[in-house]
Amino acid sequence: MSGARQVKVLFDEKTIAERTEALAREIAAAKPKNLLVVAILKGSFMFAADLLRALHRAGLEPQVEFFHLSSYMDGTMSSGTVKILRDIESSVRDRDVLLVDDILESGRTLAFAKDLLAARGARRVMVCTMLEKPGKRAVEIGADFVGFVCPDVFVVGYGMDVAHCYRELPYIGLVVTAQDAA
Ligand code: IMP
Ligand code: MG
User: Which end of the chain is more exposed for a tag (fewer CB within 10 A), N or C?
Assistant: First the structure.
């Protein structure tokens, strides 16, 4: 069993771009007030950058903050606890917050972030994830806005990594050996 690793495309650039525009219109329709977008690093950086530009086109004027949270070690297994590696700087008191993440799986990362911002006095905390893996939830949380439902495989690209690789890919896919891809 050998062969070079390749990435099999699940969601291509055009599909992601079209869905992102539609998501931005859905978010604008929720009429957020004094909106603060909080992107959860690292995985959401590419999606957040595209979503923010789409939000602008949809007529919103959000401010932007970054949370660096970690629930994963180097591999593909969740460590179960969420750590704040870098906190946001702005106050969320009485503001509408849109949490943006790459993927909702166990829900631990987003539940942690949502509870924390609610406890800090946010008026409303909404959740937008590029991908959602159904049937994997360990805690009770739903996303208000979801890009795509994702099959139960470990995906990479468009900001998402496995052991720090593949974040730069402009599409979302799964890693296969060249043999599998054939
Ligand atoms: P959760 O806390 O289990 O919902 O997982 C959230 C985080 O785990 C995501 O923000 C990702 O960074 C990471 N993650 C979960 N599934 C995948 C995957 O298939 N590929 C890459 N990262 C993933
Ligand atoms: Mg992440």
Answer: N
Q: What is the DSSP string of 131-144?
A: EE-TT--SS----S
Whether the predicted model's global pTM rises above the 0.85 cut: yes
**Contact of 79 with 107, CB cutoff 8 Å:** no
Kindly state whether residue 156 falls inside one of the protein's structural domains.
Answer: no
What digits encode the pLDDT tens for the residues 144-158?
A: 999 999 999 999 999
Which residue's alpha carbon is nearest to atom 9 within ligand 1?
103
Cα(102) to centroid of ligand 2, in Å? 6
Residue 136 lies in domain: 13-151
Domain with residue 116: its CATH number is: 3.40.50.2020
Q: pLDDT tens across 3-12, in order? A: 577 999 999 9
Domains of the chain: total: 1
Cβ < 6 A, ligand 1 pocket: 43, 71-72, 78, 101-109, 154-156, 160
Distance (angstroms) between ligand 1 centre and the Cα of 78 equals 8
Q: Tell me if 104 sits within 8 A of 29, measured CB to CB.
A: no
Whether residue 130 lies inside any domain: the answer is yes
